[in-house]
Design brief:
By secondary structure, this protein is of the alpha+beta class. It contains four helices and five strands, in the order ββαααβαββ.
């Protein structure tokens, strides 16, 4: 309730509807597999700890966590939960806009 989601899909002219997988959103943990790997770099540059949950750990997410930690020096961890996985990224930035 009160949640806003953004999705896109292709329109199927034969079926006259959009090809959207609503089941994926009904069982979502807040961050899907497509977004999780894109959160790594901004989270690594923040000053605080970022925590999010995903249904599965993709190769893209694993790669981004590893490479980003080598470049920025951020620390990360992945833990198993009853619904999926929890990803924790400790940012390393001490900079601010002045």
């Amino acid at each position: 309730q009160g949640t806003i989601i953004g999705i896109d899909g292709l329109f199927d002219n034969k079926k006259q509807n959009f090809d959207l997988d609503f089941e994926k959103f009904n069982n979502s943990l807040g961050v899907d597999e497509s977004l999780a790997d894109m959160l790594v770099v901004p989270a690594s540059l923040g000053i605080n700890k970022t925590v999010f949950q995903v249904k599965e750990i993709t190769e893209h997410l694993e790669t981004n966590l590893f490479v980003t930690s080598k470049i920025t020096g951020c620390k990360y961890g992945i833990g198993k939960t009853s619904e999926g996985f929890e990803v924790i990224i400790q940012g390393v930035s001490n900079s601010s806009i002045k």
